[in-house]
Design a protein that fits this description.
The protein has 244 residues and is α+β, with helices and mostly antiparallel strands. It has helices at 2-26, 53-66, and strands at residues 39-49, 75-85, 92-113, 119-143, 149-168, 173-194, 199-209, 211-217, 228-229, 232-243. It has an eight-stranded antiparallel barrel with strand order 1-2-3-4-5-6-7-10.
């Protein structure tokens, strides 16, 4: 069901964009003056539709080993804050900071073994892992003439963090952290309409090419054969304020 939803959502966004743009234009809420501003500040939120194969393979192995029933990852929650800086009557410069995150939790039982391989009893473990990536996007964009459509493209530098926490019933707690980094590309189209002279509400539909690699833990040990693939479509909604 979630796979089908992941495929349908971007197309629904595209289908909504055209009538929204037409309605916005017909109501006179867009004019040429919108393409002539100094600074725009905004925030946005939505879903990133991904299929991180390496991570899902690890989840599959975990399920087979511990009968954990952990759900594989197909979507990640996404938040963003952005700033557009524009010289008069020219393409604007874009600075965008994003956070893309997802978590999974599970419980399992295990049997302890002594150095002599004798059983030390059964114990219960609760474990939770959160994967978060922080992309910094530097790019350029433009408002397509005579439309309320913004088009943007940018270079990504991203830092990924993984935090695993757990507790043993009646015993100790543990935390493991690791981090990695990567470069990527992102493109976005965003139909918008004006709520007031300076406030815009916008839909966002973007495509990101990014795989975060070279993870190492807090002890400096490298995580081999692991990369968090965030390549895919993202859809969301945002609001911005224009300083004209």
């Amino acid at each position: 069901m979630k796979t089908r939803l992941s495929i349908v959502v971007p197309f629904l966004m595209l289908a909504c964009a055209a009538p929204l743009a037409a309605q916005t234009d017909s109501l006179g809420s867009f004019d040429e003056g919108e393409s002539d501003f100094k600074v725009v500040l905004g925030v946005a939120g939505g879903l990133s539709l991904v299929n991180p194969g390496t991570l899902n393979d690890e989840i599959g192995f975990l399920n087979n080993s511990l009968d954990a029933g952990v759900e594989k990852i197909q979507t990640m929650t996404q938040f963003a804050a952005f700033m557009r800086i524009k010289p008069r009557m020219a393409p604007y410069m874009l600075v965008r900071v994003e956070a893309v995150t997802v978590s999974r939790s599970f419980d399992y039982s295990a049997v302890g073994r002594s150095a002599g391989n004798s059983s030390t009893g059964r114990f219960n473990v609760s474990s939770s892992t959160r994967w978060t990536v922080y992309p910094l996007v530097l790019g350029v964009g433009t408002t397509i003439p005579n439309t309320p459509l913004d088009a943007e493209v940018g270079l990504i530098y991203a830092i990924g963090e993984t935090t695993e926490t757990g507790s043993i019933a009646g015993g100790s707690e543990y935390t493991n952290t690791s981090s990695g980094s990567a470069f990527g590309l992102e493109g976005r189209i965003s139909p918008h309409f004006r709520l007031s002279r300076n406030v815009n509400l916008a839909l966002e539909l973007s495509y990101r090419s990014l795989t975060v690699k070279h993870y190492s833990d807090s002890y400096g040990r490298d995580l081999t054969n692991f990369g968090l693939d965030l390549t895919g479509v993202a859809a969301g909604i945002g609001v911005s304020y224009t300083f004209d």
